[in-house]
Structures are given as C-alpha cells and as structure tokens.
Specification:
- With 326 residues, the protein is α+β, with helices and mostly antiparallel strands.
- It has a domain at 15-21 and 59-264: Alpha-Beta Complex (Sulfite Oxidase, Chain A, domain 2).
- The protein has eight helices and 13 strands.
- A hairpin with a 5-residue loop joins strand 2 (111-116) and strand 3 (122-125).
- Helix 1 (20-37) packs antiparallel against helix 2 (43-54).
- The longest helix has 18 residues, at 20-37.
- It starts with 19 loop residues before the first helix and ends in a 23-residue tail after the last strand.
- The model is unreliable at 1-19 and 49-55 (pLDDT under 50).
- Bound molecules: the ligand Nc1nc2c(c(=O)[nH]1)N[C@H]1C(S)=C(S)[C@@H](COP(=O)(O)O)O[C@H]1N2 and molybdenum atom (MO).
- Ligand MTE is lined by residues 86-90, 142, 144, 150, 179, 198, 227-228, 240-241, 243-246.
- Residues 106-261 form the Oxidoreductase molybdopterin-binding domain.
- Heterodimer of a catalytic subunit (MsrP) and a heme-binding subunit (MsrQ).
- Keywords: Metal-binding, Molybdenum, Oxidoreductase, Signal.
- It comes from Massilia eurypsychrophila.
Length: 326
C-alpha cells in the first residue's frame, strides 16, 4: 500500500487518513471471503463466522481536521500501545487491566451535568456535546507521573468552547471534574486505592487555555472505554492524572477542588501537577521518561521537558513558586 508522506513531515499517515476503522473493515472483508470459501460446518468456516460475529461492535469513526498549531511532531504511539497500557483504576490498577475490564462501561446514554457558578447550567448528552463545536485532531504528548509518556492523536475541542457557552460568573475560580463511579460497571471500585469518585480540577485560566482539550476520540475513532469514553479531558502540560476520564459532572467553584490524588497523598501529588523535571516526586526523579512503544529496554530514556514541552503555558505561572505549588 502506498503511504503518502504526511504534511507533518513524518512518514506516518494522519490517523484521519488511515483509521483503525479501515484496518477493521479490510480485516472483516478478508474474513468474509475466507468464510465464503470454506466448507460449511468445517473448523475454518466456524472460526471465520465466529470472528465476523465478534466484530459486530465496530469502533465508531470520529474524525476532525488536524490543528497543526497545537500538535506535536513527535512520532505517534501505536494505537495498540495507547489502548492496552492504561491507568484507569476504576478498572484495576495493573496497566493491562483497563483494556480487559472496561467493556462493562456503558457509554450511552451518558450525560454530563454542568453546574455551579455559571449563568447557564445545563445537562448535555454525548450527541449534544459533539455538536457544541467543530471536532479537531490534536496530537499531544501525555506524560504520566510514573515516568512514561505517549504521543496520541486526540479528537475533541478546547474546553473553553463549552465554558463560554455556560457563562461563568465572577465567583468561578476553579473547575472541578467528577468522573463516573458505578460499582456495577467498575470492578476497581471495590478496592479503596483512591477515594471514589475520581475527581480532578483546574484553575479557571488553565481550564480556559486553548490547549485544554475536551476529548471524545483518539486515532480517528470514539474513545476506547479504557481511555476514558465517552468524554474526558486532556491537559498535556500536566501529569497524566489531571486528565480525568469518563466525566459526568463539570462544576464551577470558588475554592480549589479536593482532587483524588491530592487527597490520597498530598505530599506526592500537588494540585498543579505541572510536568516539571526540576521537582522530583518524593520517591523518584522526574527528570526523564520512557516513551511507550518506542524505546527498547536498553534505549536511553528521554529528558522530560518543562511543562512537557508546552512553553506557551508558562505565563500562567509567572510569580508562582513552582517548587511550592507542585
Ligand atoms: N477516572 C480516571 N481518570 C484517570 C485515571 C483514573 O484512574 N481514573 N488515571 C489517570 C492517569 S494516572 C493517567 S496517566 C491517564 C492515562 O490516560 P490513558 O490511559 O488514556 O493514557 O488517565 C488519567 N485519568
Ligand atoms: Mo498517570
């Protein structure tokens, strides 16, 4: 197959050109042909039909125009790695568990309640959310506090688009994100590793920053459940845990929200959690990171960049001691 050299200068197609959907469709066609050629009732025929049947829940496409101004040129992490190496404690604390367990998450119907210090409180379903602003593709680096990172093409739009619609009043100083906590769907809630529901938050200017992405898809398809379907945020200059998954409530508040990781270990996870190679985690260095799916075992780790390589956010923190406000 001919792969066009993409305009971002990488020998990689944009995910909007070749999506997991395309891969899935060609595979399905192949399986159909295989089934047609096989003797009815034979082992091959049975296998082919079972395969074809199992694939009926095809990933749904979600494409958007690439926004090059906000996109990293780094080599993208393979979809397979980004969708099987996850942190989503509601589905287990092992990296491989969310991909195995998150099929029980029911992502439709789904509503997000937007409330608090705003003039226009509202409840939106996913279709309402998707219609709020044009979907863009943003290729972001995401670095976990544990010392690994990925480069993922996301589909969504700036959270600021939603914030403008609900008209915050003068008391709105922070935004609090509450995520789903349903023990019937989420086996991980049985274990008290965190206080449920998982809550995260941003200061108002951080929430309004155009890089803060309200995210409904990745790699040209709707979010896999393990990546936070049907809607999450992605805040690329902060450690990954700020990017809350499967959001059900967005509340505008006066006081700094009590966030899940900060409550569980305040000396390790501050509210700001900006990626900062100069402020070590109490138990390990934050100076370097491993790029998932790219670096081999003996590969040198790469240096972690201030604000994860997003210097355009620095002005929001001028005058703040980032060692104290970690
Ligand atoms: N609801 C919820 N959101 C969450 C988490 C979680 O456990 N629960 N883990 C966070 C952490 S620690 C990281 S690194 C990112 C991982 O996102 P990814 O699996 O899509 O790469 O999700 C964040 N959002
Ligand atoms: Mo993380």
């Amino acid at each position: 197959m001919l792969i066009k050299r993409s305009p971002n200068g990488l020998d990689l197609p944009f995910s909007s050109e070749i999506t997991p959907q395309d891969v899935y469709e060609s595979r399905r066609k192949f399986i159909k042909q295989m089934a047609a050629g096989a003797v009815a009732g034979s082992a091959l025929w049975e296998m082919a039909n079972r395969e074809a049947f199992a694939q009926t829940t095809a990933p749904q496409k979600l494409v958007g125009k690439l926004n090059p101004a906000y996109s990293a040129l780094d080599k993208q992490t393979p979809f397979k790695d980004a969708s099987t190496y996850n942190n989503y404690y509601e589905f287990g604390t092992d990296k491989s568990e969310p991909a195995v367990n998150a099929h029980t998450l029911k992502t439709r119907p789904w509503t997000v309640s937007i409330e608090g210090e705003i003039k226009k409180p509202m409840t939106l379903d996913i279709d309402g959310l998707l219609k709020l602003a044009p979907i863009e593709e943003r290729v972001y680096r995401l670095r976990c506090v544990e010392g690994w990172s990925m480069v993922i093409p996301w589909q969504g739009f700036s959270l600021s688009e939603l914030i403008k619609k609900v008209e915050p009043n003068g008391n709105a100083k922070f935004v609090e994100f509450t995520t789903l906590a349903d023990p019937k769907q989420m086996p991980g809630l049985r274990s008290p590793v965190l206080q449920w529901p998982y809550v995260e938050g941003l200061r108002m200017d951080e929430a309004m920053h155009p890089l803060t992405l309200l995210t409904m898809g990745m790699y040209g398809q709707v979010l896999p459940n393990q990546n936070g379907a049907p809607v999450r945020i992605v805040v690329p200059w902060k450690y990954g845990f700020k990017s809350a998954k499967s959001i059900v409530k967005i509340r505008f508040v006066k006081e700094m929200p009590r966030t899940a990781w900060n409550v569980s270990a305040p000396s390790e996870y501050g509210f700001y959690s900006n990626v900062n190679p100069e402020v070590d985690h109490p138990r390990w260095s934050q100076g370097s990171e491993r790029r998932i799916g790219e670096d081999g075992f003996f590969q040198k780790k790469r240096k972690t960049l201030m604000f994860n390589g997003y210097p355009q956010v620095a002005s929001m923190y001028t005058g703040m001691d980032l060692k104290k406000n970690f």
